[in-house]
Amino acid sequence: MLPLLVSIGAVFGVLAAACAYVISYNEYRQRMLRLDQNPRRMALGTAGVTFVFILIASVILALVLEPK
């Protein structure tokens, strides 16, 4: 059950990360940022955190739902 939920988590993690990138890039671009801040890099960081969070949540869910 662990590989199935991890693969589902990876698929939804990629979708969530793409949505997080689009939303955060739009928000960072609209805000007044300092010259040394890059909205694409900041949005990629947000997308990366989102992907890792969804992947870890799927692993935890797989461990909780594991039959004993």
Mind explaining what this structure looks like?
With 68 residues, this protein is an all-alpha fold. The protein has one domain. 81% of the residues lie in helices and 0% in strands. It is built from two helices and no strands. The N and C termini lie close together (12 Å).
Tell me the layout of helices and strands:
Elements: H1 2-30, H2 39-64
Helix pairs in contact: 1-2
Quick structural summary:
This protein has 68 residues and is mainly alpha-helical. The protein has helices at residues 2-30, 39-64. It has one domain.
Low-confidence stretches: none
Strand content: under 5%
User: On the 0-100 scale, what is the average pLDDT?
Assistant: 92
| Main sheet: strands, sense, barrel | none
Tell me the overall shape. Answer: rod-shaped
Multimeric status of the protein: single chain
What percentage of residues falls in helices of 4 or more residues?
Answer: over 70%
So how many helices? 2
What's the domain count?
Answer: 1
Task: List SSEs in N-to-C order.
Answer: HH
Number of strands: 0
CA radius of gyration is 15 Å
Backbone structural class: mainly alpha
Distance between the termini: 12 Å
